[in-house]
Write a structure and sequence with these properties.
With about 210 residues, this protein is an alpha+beta fold. It contains 2 helices and 12 strands; from the N terminus they run αββββββββββαββ. The termini are far apart.
């Protein structure tokens, strides 16, 4: 009788142990499955950035270059828009270092936006208010040859900061060179100019 009881107790213990092991295995399997689904969802979200696009108009036409003839100052109207069906983050900039004799920057005016910082700005989804911004970019080319400035655009999810590429440069406010102000805005006596804040004086030197 005692032997039978021991065998029965052992069988119960064995069954309990097997049940516990089975539960542990099932728990590990479902935990891994949940983790895999979560990672797949995260990857699916990150893939969305590859499908985001942008709209860039220069003086009303699609393009990404500013062409400035020699000895010329030109103003460009740039429209950056979000053509996607969700809010997204955008930035635009010019590529490569500019040669000597080139002065470029944005113009502050009523109803005109200031270009975004490196982290970018959010634009609403296509067709809604706030889905596009308009900028004024002024370029002075004092060199003896024409110049083409290439623009770049970054786009990403609205909650992720953007980063400039290594050859990208943000636009700063346009400042006319002092030499240009003096030479093109001479006063009545031919050698002074006062812009309301500073007085510039040109000096003629006889060699």
């Amino acid at each position: 009788m005692k032997k039978i009881l021991l065998e029965t107790s052992f069988s119960k213990i064995y069954m309990i142990v097997m049940i516990i092991i089975t539960l542990l295995i099932l728990g590990g399997y479902f935990s891994y499955a949940m983790f895999t689904v979560t990672k797949e969802k995260e990857n699916a979200i990150s893939i969305v950035t590859g499908n985001l696009t942008y709209g860039l108009l220069i003086d009303g036409e699609e393009g990404n270059t500013l062409n400035i003839p020699a000895k010329t100052t030109r103003e460009f109207t740039i429209t950056l828009s979000n053509p996607n069906n969700r809010k997204a983050r955008f930035n635009f900039y010019y590529l490569y270092n500019l040669p000597n004799g080139i002065n470029v920057g944005y113009i502050i005016a009523e109803g005109i936006n200031i270009p975004p910082k490196e982290t970018g700005i959010n634009l609403e989804q296509s067709g809604s208010s706030g889905s596009s911004n308009t900028y004024k970019i002024n370029v002075t080319n004092t060199s003896s040859s024409g110049l083409t400035i290439t623009l770049g655009v970054e786009v990403g999810l609205d909650y992720n900061d953007l980063n400039l590429p290594s050859d990208g440069h943000l636009f700063e406010e346009y400042k006319m060179p002092v030499s240009d102000v003096v030479l093109t805005n001479l006063g009545d006596d031919g050698n002074t100019y006062n812009d309301g804040e500073d007085t510039f004086i040109t000096v003629s030197t006889i060699l």
